[in-house]
Specification:
Distance between the termini: 57 Å
Largest sheet: 4 strands, antiparallel
Structural class: mainly beta
Number of strands: 9
Order of helices and strands: EEEEEEEEEH
Mean pLDDT: 89
Low-confidence stretches: none
Amino acid sequence: MAREIHLVEPQDNTATVISREMTKGRVVSIEIDGDEKNIEILNDIPYGHKIAVRPIKKGDAILKYGLSIGTALVDIEVGDHVHIHNIESNRGRGDLYIQNVNEKERV
């Protein structure tokens, strides 16, 4: 069976979806901490997006690549889609920078 989710670092609480078939209700397997775990997909997740592989509490760091890439805005369950609707990035968002610059130019 081909791998469908890729966990970059063992301590990460998110993994990358590498399947175009991540639909709500499916159960997929992933190796976490040396154990094979089954995760039920809680909602459709697009290819290349993140999935929670551990419970994440509101305010917790979102870990990918072994690094914090953001902060959870709400509690996130295992199997949930992790994206801009439930995390705040701590990486630069160029779109927000451009939006802010454009708004200042109009003032």
